[in-house]
Amino acid sequence: MTLGVLALALLVTGVLAWAAFVVNDHNESRLLRLKVAETGAVFQVALPTVETPLASAVEVARPDNGGAAGFRRYMSDYVGAKGPFAFAALWTAANAQPVAMIGRSVMLARAPARVRSLLERAATHPGLSLQARLTGPQRVLAYAYASPGSGGGPIVYAESALPTNPRVRPTSGTPFSDLRFALYLGRRPTAGMLLETNAGSLGSRTASTEVPFGDQVLTIVGASNGSLGGGLSTSLWWIVAIAGGALSLIAAGITERLLRDRQAAEILAADVQRLLERQQTISSALQRSMIPRAPSGPAYLEIASRYLPGGDELEIGGDWFDVIELDADRTFLSIGDVSGRGLAAGSVMASLRAAMRAFVSEGHGPADLLDRLAPMLSISEGGRFATVTCLVLDRRAGLVTAASAGHLPPLVVRSGTAEYLDVPVGPPIGAAAEPTAYRQQVFELPADTMILLFTDGLVERRSETIDDGLARLSRIAAQATGTVDEMLERITTELTAGGGEDDTAVLGVRRT
Amino acid sequence: MTPDAEPRRATFTVEPDAQDGCVVVVDGEVDIASAAAFDDAVTSAIALSPERVAFDLSGTTFFDSSGLAVLLAAANRATTVTIRRASAAARRVIEVSGLTDTLGLHQ
């Protein structure tokens, strides 16, 4: 991903930089061509300074004008240190001797054959003809001029001395100051034909133009001295490259960072998820361990129980029941419900049950036991309270002693009848700020009577009062027959047909 | 039917009252799903009137131990808690839980 972003950004940068480079390159070439053409035009304007005096000298030297004397007089102003020429001579015919000479000739001394061929060329081609000696210590450019339309007329010959070294110092403030150029005689820019240059070498980007000069051509080859389009134009491509490259790296860095952040977040989320699942596993295992098991009791009691989880099976309610054998004839029974759900409610329930077992083993009766249980829980501390019913069943006496801390009354079922025991009810454990003295009451318990203990999940329904639920329970319980287990099956099936929302604990005990 | 199926099953209104300082009017079903909102209403009522808080449960159609826990917590925080009126549904739950005195339910 990061490498992809980097590659794409670098590709875009590369294309942009390349485009900037190409545009600049085209621009530079075009500007250079213009510059060199402009330079050629300037040269062209300068050439008459050579041609004009020679043309005039031919007119002056005609026999009907000044002749050789007139020629000498006229040319003396142009030959020497102040004039363009180092030597001038007048021929009446190409194959004769000169009739007048001013200055000192290099060509006549060193290359007379070339002078001869130049004069012959001038005789047949009127106007300006050129010859050059461009190698060796004394470099010379020679001119010959014959008047047009006057065959056999005088021929003016002149020589300009060229500097030994064709390399001249670049001069500033001229149109050529930002141009490196080389000036060649003829069409081919070879070292042997170099007249003048202002640079050692021109470099790779050059442009050339030709300027006619007499019967020859001058070739100007130019190269830009620096950028013609300006610094920004030249620098644009690498500015784009560097800035683009930097931006690409930044983009890649940001991408990398975002990817890492996301990866870290995903790892964290997975860890949290795993921890949650682990916690739920631990929590539900703990809670399952707290669900009261089917209790066993003495042989003279037939016992059955049900524990029905409510809507949310992940969290248990705080319901419990308990059967404790006190001695040969007496058995302790309890049922209770801690408010709320979940592990916290379950652990309150577990500690209340443990405390109750301890108090029972010390021989306390139901009301006494609730009095001792009451300080163990406070609504103002844990936000929880518990309802509890305690009974002590005495089979020899046929009596049951009961006390209630806000719990629903026990139902007594015997031969087709069912009625609730009117157990004195005190406030739930943990509900009252002031300590309360619980009361207990003794009821007769004939043989074959079933005591049904339950929590509110069995009878609570929306859209009706709890009395409606209690009435329905007693009606169904009265019709139930068979073993205690069969009776509980029918009761719980019919009362929780719609699926109870709350947890429900039911304990049935019958004296046989 | 899940408890979340109906969004507003219970409404709790806290009203200033000349006699009891503050009355919390409870309408609808109070169960484990709405107990937290009930507790919030009771907390603001006690903040308004720390000494006396009254409850009007005449519009309460369902009331279970979750609601009892909130009432009991209120009774432990405010000096005096009374229940002025109560529907049969709420009244019977309070009565079978042995809390008529603790919660000041009379008549």
Largest sheet of chain B: 4 strands, mixed
Number of helices of chain B: 3
Gross geometry of chain B: globular
Helix content of chain A: 25-40%
Low-confidence stretches of chain B: 1-6
Concise overview:
Chain A is of the alpha+beta class and 512 residues long. Chain A has eleven helices and 20 strands. Mean pLDDT of chain B is 87; it is low at 1-6.
Question: Which helices and strands appear, and what pairs or packs with what?
Answer:
The complex is a heterodimer of chains A (512) and B (107).
Chain A: H1 2-46, H2 48-61, H3 67-75, E1 87-91, E2 98-103, H4 107-110, H5 112-124, E3 127-133, E4 139-146, E5 155-162, E6 179-185, E7 194-197, E8 207-213, E9 216-224, H6 231-290, E10 301-308, E11 317-325, E12 330-341, H7 342-361, H8 366-373, H9 379-382, E13 386-394, E14 399-405, E15 411-414, E16 417-420, E17 425-426, E18 440-444, E19 450-454, H10 466-479, H11 484-495, E20 504-511
Parallel strand pairs in A: 14-17
Antiparallel strand pairs in A: 1-2, 1-5, 3-4, 4-5, 6-7, 6-9, 8-9, 10-20, 11-12, 12-13, 13-14, 14-18, 15-16, 15-19, 19-20
Helix pairs in contact in A: 1-6, 2-3, 6-7, 10-11
Chain B: E1 10-17, E2 21-30, H1 35-48, E3 52-63, H2 65-77, E4 80-86, H3 88-96
Parallel strand pairs in B: 2-3, 3-4
Antiparallel strand pairs in B: 1-2
Helix pairs in contact in B: 1-2
Describe the structure.
- The complex is a heterodimer of chains A (512) and B (107).
- In chain A, 40% of the residues lie in helices and 26% in strands.
- Chain A contains eleven helices and 20 strands.
- In chain A, strand 13 and strand 14 form a beta hairpin.
- Chain A is rod-shaped.
- The relative contact order of chain A is 0.09.
- Chain B is of the alpha/beta class.
- Chain B is 34% helix and 35% strand.
- Chain B is built from three helices and four strands, in the order E-E-H-E-H-E-H.
- The N terminus of chain B is likely disordered.
- Chains A and B meet through strand 12 and strand 17 of A and helix 2 and helix 3 of B.
